[in-house]
User: What shape does this take?
Amino acid sequence: MKLYPLKFKPIFKETVWGGNRLKSLLHKNISGDKKVGESWELSAVRGNLSVVSNGYLKGNNIEELIEVYMGELVGEKVYEQFGNEFPLLIKFLDTTETLSLQVHPDDATAAERHHAFGKNEMWYIVAADADAKIALGFGKDSNLGELLEHVEKNTLHEILNLENVKAGDTFYVPAGTLHAIGKNITLAEIQQTSDITYRVYDWGRNEKNRPLHTDLAMDVIDYRAAKNHKVEVKDKSHLIENKYFTTNLLNLSQAAERNLSEHDSFIIYVCTSGEAKITAGGQAEKIAAGETLLIPAALSDVQVAPQGSVTLLEVYIK
Assistant: This one.
């Protein structure tokens, strides 16, 4: 059967730091007053496989789709590299408290310790309060001894690189970067398919329920001063390009044609504001703020028709 633009059922994660803007701002179907901190939009993490919510493939999960459609769905080169495991994890996050200070291992360390991929990721800020901040790396070159001393004294803010954030900002967070998302921030996160996180410090919260992984973290942290984490748009739309993912930022008020066939990859559209009709393979799907759409690699000619104006993150593997 012919492939078409695919939507998936979000997977909601209740967290101690979650808020309500996934429901109020991004219109997620969350019942009651649950503190949902994460909405996993497209996931191949074991135990959290995304399930199709539209069309004749409704009810099938992402792994089952790849098993059947292989390179047609993800791209031949992507399939050769990753097999039946979809390589990216797409999320929305919303915070009312600061997340734990954490770090992710790179591919080599994650493979050795966990038989998994590492985690390089990016954040696109959807909304943030005026005083919202994130921590990304160190303000100056540091070392293990200094880090442990400040953990003991609860003075980590003295050595971390703190950045003010506002809607529309983008940050790249490579593996090895000590980081924490501050309170009152809603963001879209694009990352490798990995759920490996080493928690270094949790700001005095109950660590019996949220254990630390200090020993695992210490030899994967990059102790050099942070630089170039904030990403500016280049060539009108280009944000990030590396071996893990390429992301473009599309701010559209008129219809646009997108042909990415040369990259031999699926395309993911993440809508952060507005809405649009996206057509591929002769089939159209609407996408609105808070929604995500997967375009199979075989359908690389895409038409985007904004309904007024729309902001989209366009993601693929180059």
About this structure: The first strand starts at residue 11 and ends at 19. The chain has a mean pLDDT of 94.
